[in-house]
Design a protein that fits this description.
This is Chromosome segregation protein SMC. The protein is mainly alpha-helical. It is about 100% helix and about 0% strand. The N and C termini lie far apart (about 125 Å).
Length: about 90
Amino acid sequence: LAAQLEKRSRAHERAVAKLSVIQEQATRAANQAASDRANLEQTAQRDVSRAQEQIRAHAQTIGALVAEKTELQTRVQHLERLSQQRAQ
């Protein structure tokens, strides 16, 4: 009976040790996943910020081009009126 108890005690100790190793591995994996996620989120946020800045720059460029086009159209219309007046 004592031998059987000793045998089961050793088996239990091995199982506890194995469980401890598995728990450590799970903790390390969870920590690594959290770190990877944080890095990914940081990279994504940086990319979004860059894209937003590019959009702002493009919007400013478009605004300037539209203003220039409007100014040129006004000048063309003015020149066309002058040309028509001279032709009469």
